[in-house]
What we know:
The protein is of the alpha+beta class. Helices cover 25% and strands 25% of the residues. The protein is globular and about 75 Å long. Mean pLDDT is 75; it is low at 17-23, 93-99 and 178-195.
Amino acid sequence: MRLALALLTAAGCVLGASAAVAVRLRRRYVVITVAGVSMEPAYRDGDRVLVRRTPLAAVRRGQVVLLSGSLTEMWPEMAAEAALATDPRAPAGRSAAPEPADEPFRVIKRATAVPGDPVPREVAALPRAPGRVVPEGCLVVLGDNAAASRDSRHFGYVPARWLVGVVVRRITPAPGVTRADGGRAAPAGPAGRPRPPAAS
């Protein structure tokens, strides 16, 4: 009887410790699924990636970051379309918008300049990115596939409040993608938008 009780107690301790570790990992890491082609060839539509929650001060130039901001701030044109689609006075036949304007909007991009770095030439002419040096509390981000990316060239500096973390690694590649020869083109999607974190 004592042995059984001791075994049950030990099993309970192991389960409790495992649950505590799982909670800590969930607070520190996020898994997302990439939607879109703006980060090709590094990340393709359908890739699942692991993101470590990271403060802006720990972000280094060249790292890929996960951002989460309001659709209105990051993509005002899409927010306006979302508002129109949900407006009962909208023209008949309009389909619902893909993202409500008040929902968090997530993107992955490459950090190309951190506080104190010179503002990249591609962004310097933008009115929302004044100055020659990236100010404290901000990042400049660009998509690897510039032609299909919405990034700092459109919305200017990324404020620290948008930063979720840094992409650590790809967990699984997109279905049907062969990496050895560069892979096939992933299906097009909203430029650079990851799908929400996968439930686990």
